[in-house]
Design a protein that fits this description.
It is built from 15 helices and 14 strands. By secondary structure, the chain is an alpha/beta fold. It has a seven-stranded mixed sheet, sandwiched between helices. Strands 1-2-3-12 form a four-stranded mixed sheet. It binds pyridoxal-5'-phosphate. Pyridoxal-5'-phosphate (PLP) binds next to helix 5.
Length: about 400
């Protein structure tokens, strides 16, 4: 191959303990994970509500396949848009109290697609939280908008940036729940700044939807943010809702604009209608089964209470908890030790997090039980304790 940078770049990744590889799993999402015939308790998946193996969602998928076939067959503007897609869009708009909704096949393409569709000129200013997901960063910086990043949740800096901006159209971009730290966005203050500076607000709630809010509507509902025409909400289906895809909500005019001008939407095969049918079932379960959210909160409190004081964790307000290990090497070592004891966790390393802030990312789910949590905390205390002593 002529791309001579590939070999040295891979070698460098290895040398820096940053090399990434996939594990072929026999079973991945859900409480139990199976790898090479061995079973592990899974603390790595984003199946927060424990819906991954739910029989109603599986039956809905099968029913959808019977009715519509395996895939959508084309992009939405050709013949890929079905009654199932429409029903799902209406359900989401109603659930999130938004005027309109549009489906995307992945959250990544929703974020990058919307930001490239809105960022058409240097008259647009994007203001992103420093910890924004890669899809938001790519969408913003690959667009024609002037993009700036403010320190995580730092409203003072955001205010200064908005005050000094000469852009006609301003969009603040933040997340509901930050996926690597598990803390929530300071949405109330950020929304006040949006209103003060006549800016629009884009909230990626991939990790908040399902888990936060009275009926799982996400962080905006949990923080009582009043809905306005300046607000765009993005949710994903591949985490708490246990299917696949994403939705963007906003004003009717904005959604109409995306249908006409968002290249990721127009030039991509629509999600399988069966996936939309399954997601409808999943959202209805999420709305009604409050016990799942209550259980996650209880398990999270239990987990934190079992950890030794010496264990450094992220400032989490969700069921995502980062166990800070410092170096990449430590994170990989602790991951392996915990795996040997039957717990599957993922070491998170740069560039996903800052250098020196590597961690084990623990995600708790409604499918876990007290025993799982206590045993995990005991093992973390032992493994991390030893690792810190040996430093
Ligand atoms: C905050 C955030 N936004 C967007 C995405 C992308 O969503 P999807 O996995 O549906 O592409 C992710 C997934 O990791 C995410 O964590």
């Amino acid at each position: 191959m002529s791309f001579s940078f590939i070999k040295p770049q891979l070698a460098k990744q290895q040398e820096l303990n940053l090399y990434r590889s996939r594990k072929e799993l026999d079973k991945g999402a859900g409480r139990l994970l199976v790898h090479q015939g061995k079973q592990y308790i899974n603390f790595s998946s984003n199946d927060y509500l424990g819906l991954n193996q739910h029989c109603d969602i599986k039956s809905a998928f099968k029913k959808g396949i019977e009715q519509y076939g395996c895939g959508s067959g084309s992009s939405s503007l050709v013949t890929g848009y079905s009654k199932a897609h429409q029903e799902l869009e209406e359900l989401i708009a109603d659930w999130l109290e938004a005027p309109k909704c549009l489906l995307f096949s992945t959250g990544f393409s929703a974020n990058s697609g919307v930001l490239s569709a809105l960022g058409q000129s240097t008259n647009t200013g994007y203001f992103l939280d420093k910890l924004s997901h890669a899809s938001l960063i790519d969408g913003a910086f690959n667009s024609k908008a002037k993009s700036k990043r403010f320190k995580h949740n730092n409203c003072e800096q955001l205010n200064d940036m908005l005050s000094s901006s000469d852009c006609n159209d301003k969009l603040i971009i933040a997340e509901g729940v930050y996926s690597m730290d598990g803390d929530t966005g300071n949405l109330s203050s950020i929304n006040n700044l949006a209103l003060k500076h006549q800016a629009n607000l884009y909230i990626d709630d991939a990790h908040g939807v399902g888990v936060l809010g009275k009926e799982g509507q996400g962080t905006l509902e949990q923080q009582n943010i009043e809905k306005g025409s300046h607000l765009i909400q993005m949710i994903t289906f591949g985490k708490a809702l246990a299917t696949q895809g994403a939705a963007v909500t906003g004003s009717a005019e904005f959604i109409d604009y995306l249908v006409n001008r968002c290249r990721d939407y127009i030039y991509s095969t629509a999600m399988p209608p069966a996936n939309a049918v399954a997601t409808i079932t999943s959202i209805k379960l999420c709305q009604s089964e409050h016990w799942r959210r209550e259980k996650i909160s209880k398990l999270t409190c239990l987990f934190k209470s079992q950890l030794d004081n010496s264990i450094e964790i992220t400032d989490s307000q969700s069921s995502i908890i980062g166990i800070l290990t410092g170096s990449e090497e430590n994170a990989l070592y602790c991951q392996l030790q915990l795996k040997n004891k039957g717990f599957w966790l993922t070491a998170i390393r740069p560039p996903t997090v800052e250098i020196g802030k590597s961690r084990l990312r623990v995600t708790l789910s409604a499918s876990h039980n007290d025993k799982d949590i206590i045993e995990l905390a005991d093992c973390i205390n032992e493994v991390i304790g030893k690792c810190l002593q040996n430093k």
